[in-house]
Amino acid sequence: MPDAGLASADTMETDVADVGVAEGLAAQSRLRRFLPVTPMHHAERFGVWLKLENLQRTGSYKVRGALNALLAARERGDRRPVICASAGNHAQGLAWAAYRLGVQAITVMPHGAPQTKIAGVAHWGATVRQHGHSYDEAYEFARRLAEQNGYRFLSAFDDPDVIAGQGTVGIEIAPYAPDVVIVPIGGGGLASGVALALKSQGVRVVGAQVEGVDSMARAIRGDTAPRDPAPTLADGVRVKVPGFITRRLCARLLDDVVIVREAELRETLVRLALEENLIAEGAGALALAAGRRVAGRRKCAVVSGGNIDATVLATLLSEVRPRPPRKPRRGAAPPRAEPRPPRQRAGTAAGIPFPVPPAPEPAQPVSKEESTW
């Protein structure tokens, strides 16, 4: 992958002004015919609303950006075969989108990618090539193949159409009127898109990264030197260098980036399974793991994906034993099961009002051995 201080020619031609709220709304119009609106779930023991992208097609939000990019390319008359590099979720999203639209797709995945993600790509008929042992090595190989064969290279995050597609997550969250939304960051596509969709609504957007896998946080501070990311359960965000477009958007729009310890991530993933009956992959549990360090009365965390390898999940469930949750205080009012009729919030994006039902009161935080929920 290019050095953080440099960018490929096609990326340099793209300015952050090429993607904004209008592009997000256009993406929503394209995608609504193909993708369902994923549910919101109130995790009472965490006191956080969860946007369940683990229930999206292919088990991840990534299908939004991939499908929007293919649909936008078709509108422009570009029907070239598409190639991408991915640790798994972007590859699955591209494979599904290409299958639905009849486009040839090639995916380059690093050795060691979860078998469940490799199988998901092959299921939808895309060609799978494995190369290297990291996303960055797979990226370099995919770029070479694109140049040699005239394919369209579709970045997993550093593409305006992809960013706009991921931004539809934020558009779907907006009616719930959160005061802060927490999103995981790898290359920055989801964080950029959600921030573009929600900042005009007055919502704070906070990114989450893993200790030792914090390239975006460092880039925002001005440290653009590439460093090998540490091993982590969150393989979906293990990116050595963030995107060129996404770095500029995140620096401008994010309110903060929280760094999570690996032990916190592991515990949160297990708690999601045991207490909320939700299966998330490592990157999918990252935003919720960061939630305890983010102040907010109506917090929302994006569960970005659920494609975890069965053996990894079994190992975590056998090794991680969170302390039983503390009993709630007596007299504490439970959250409303049904919201009141929607109200309108002033100052909506592009003049389009979002219905905003009031969110319930947050639940009492839970005390844990390795966290302070």
TrEMBL record:
- Does the keyword field hold Lyase? yes
Give the enzyme class: lyase
Bilayer-spanning residue ranges: none
- A biological-process GO annotation: isoleucine biosynthetic process
**A GO molecular-function descriptor:** threonine deaminase activity
Q: Which UniProt keywords apply?
A: Lyase, Pyridoxal phosphate
The UniProt regions of compositional bias labelled Pro residues, in chain numbering, are 354-363
Q: What is its EC number?
A: 4.3.1.19
Spans of biased composition, class Low complexity? Answer: 344-353
Region (Disordered) residue spans: 319-373
Cofactor(s) required for function per UniProt:
pyridoxal 5'-phosphate
The record's SUPFAM superfamilies line, in alphabetical order, gives: Tryptophan synthase beta subunit-like PLP-dependent enzymes
Q: Which residues form the Tryptophan synthase beta chain-like PALP domain?
A: 37-297
The UniProt family comment states:
Belongs to the serine/threonine dehydratase family.
Name of the protein in its database record = Serine/threonine dehydratase
Question: What is the organism of origin for this protein?
Answer: Pseudoxanthomonas taiwanensis
Q: What is the lineage of its organism?
A: Bacteria, Pseudomonadati, Pseudomonadota, Gammaproteobacteria, Lysobacterales
